[in-house]
């Protein structure tokens, strides 16, 4: 997934975003599954960070499938870029006006989106965060997500075991300031590896926005600062592949251990090929399917879902490390996305 890029979009961009991306998956006023009038169907909104990230593409597919299964109408929207908080606010407002019973959202800015969410909840709309929690988490009715701290901790424990006592020179290729999912993965990795923030073994930290090109640039910058880096933590697999490209250009790709999070098909294949040593796989399809069902149940008089639901995470590697539970890439490829 994954991940995760946080600048506020300008008003003009958010207005354009709302006009072009708020759509019903049934089309032409039809229910997603039965062709019934939309007035009879439960309306569910899905707002992702972007339309292009494979993680969110798979999440949308899961929501569409569940909407058809439960006879709901799905309205979807996505930011113009990962971090388009203004666009997400506009999408929330438009969906509330359209009469949705619930909104599923992957918040681009976990703090700045809270007032818009509170306004929607005050209007009687169930709001469920997917993948990324808000700050505070209680700003939404519920959270269906990977335990991102655990995801980071798993690859941290793996990296520590794989180093087998060799002194580490660590680079962290992170997300962006103020984004909960990025901070949770980063903090989890440090705990798993057994080091604290500011430890001298962390020789370089750079933000990548979860982007492959930025990941490559970040790795190049880190190699200039500390040429002897031997462990690279990355926020997601695009950043990991960017790091690999930079390391290969220096002839060091076989000397450096790269670990990551997401478990997309491209990333899992990179584990299989040895470009990435291990990744923590998460499951966006399950998040979306569970979210749609929760909204439909709420709309039909069922109990309102609340609290945190862990949608699972699995360490994927073909080079297992002693004491760290993992599955191989055959399992990873059977369960990947994108």
From TrEMBL:
The subcellular location is: Cell envelope
Residues of the Periplasmic binding protein domain: 44-301
* Keyword terms: Signal
* Signal peptide residue numbers: 1-18
Q: What's a Gene Ontology MF term here?
A: carbohydrate binding
GO CC terms in record:
cell envelope
Q: Which Gene3D superfamilies match?
A: 3.40.50.2300
UniProt cross-references to InterPro entries, sorted A to Z: Peripla_BP_I, SBP_2_dom
Q: Does the keyword Transmembrane apply?
A: no
Which top-level group of life is the source organism from?
Answer: Bacteria
* UniProt similarity note: Belongs to the bacterial solute-binding protein 2 family.
What name does this protein carry?
Answer: Fructose transport system substrate-binding protein
């Amino acid at each position: 997934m994954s991940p995760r890029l946080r600048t506020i979009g300008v008003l003009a961009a958010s207005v354009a975003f709302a006009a072009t991306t708020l759509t019903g998956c049934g089309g032409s006023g039809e229910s997603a599954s039965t062709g019934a009038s939309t007035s009879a169907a439960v309306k569910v909104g899905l707002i992702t960070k972007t339309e292009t990230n494979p993680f969110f593409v798979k999440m949308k597919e899961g929501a569409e499938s569940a909407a058809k299964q439960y006879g709901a109408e799905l309205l979807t929207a996505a930011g113009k870029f990962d971090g388009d908080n203004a666009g997400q606010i506009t999408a929330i407002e438009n969906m509330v006006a359209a009469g949705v019973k619930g909104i599923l959202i992957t918040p681009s800015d976990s703090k700045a989106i809270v007032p818009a969410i509170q306004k929607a909840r005050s209007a009687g709309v169930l709001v469920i965060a997917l993948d990324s929690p808000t700050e505070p988490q209680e700003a939404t009715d519920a959270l269906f997500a990977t335990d991102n701290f655990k995801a980071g901790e798993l690859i941290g424990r793996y990296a520590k075991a794989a180093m087998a006592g060799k002194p580490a020179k660590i680079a962290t290729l992170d997300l962006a300031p103020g984004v909960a999912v990025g901070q949770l993965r980063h903090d989890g990795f440090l705990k798993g590896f057994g080091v604290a923030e500011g430890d001298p073994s962390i020789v370089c930290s750079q933000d990548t926005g979860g982007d492959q090109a930025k990941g490559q640039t970040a790795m190049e910058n880190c190699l200039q600062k500390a040429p002897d880096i031997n462990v690279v933590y990355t926020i997601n697999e695009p950043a990991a592949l960017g790091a690999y490209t930079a390391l290969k250009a220096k002839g060091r790709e076989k000397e450096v251990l790269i670990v990551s999070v997401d478990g997309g098909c491209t990333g899992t294949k990179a584990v299989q090929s040895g470009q990435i040593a291990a990744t923590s796989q998460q499951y966006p399809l399950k998040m979306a399917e569970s979210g749609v069902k929760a909204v439909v149940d709420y709309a039909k008089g069922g109990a309102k879902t609340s609290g945190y639901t862990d949608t699972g995470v699995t360490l994927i590697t073909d080079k297992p490390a002693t004491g760290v539970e993992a599955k191989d890439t055959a399992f990873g490829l059977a369960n990947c996305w994108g």
